[in-house]
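One-letter codes give the sequence; the fold follows as tokens. Both lines appear below.
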Amino acid sequence: MEQKKLEKVMEEEGLKDEEKIMRRSGHARKETEFLCLKRTRLGLEDFESLKVVGRGAFGEVWLVQKKDTGHVYAMKILLKADMLEKEQVGHIGVECDILVEADS
């Protein structure tokens, strides 16, 4: 929730000044944690491999579980040498862009 929305909600709820300060502080802490998480670079060591879901021309898709949260994801592991050899780097970039935009 952005700052303006937070202020509007607090006004509608009729919070006292002390409560508003506490709410703002909590909001700032959560925002800091979120931004820190967003900057964190993930690696294979952050996940536990569960099983292979599929194999393709350039690599494999694995079902993985994030160690710290327990969330389950599909991870595509590509072999860069094979992509370069078959001149498919452009296609991988487009696929990455699509996956970044998708929210499912």
Q: What stands out?
A: Strands lie at 47-55, 59-66, 72-78. The chain has a mean pLDDT of 84. The first helix runs from residue 3 to 13. The chain is about 50% helix and 25% strand.
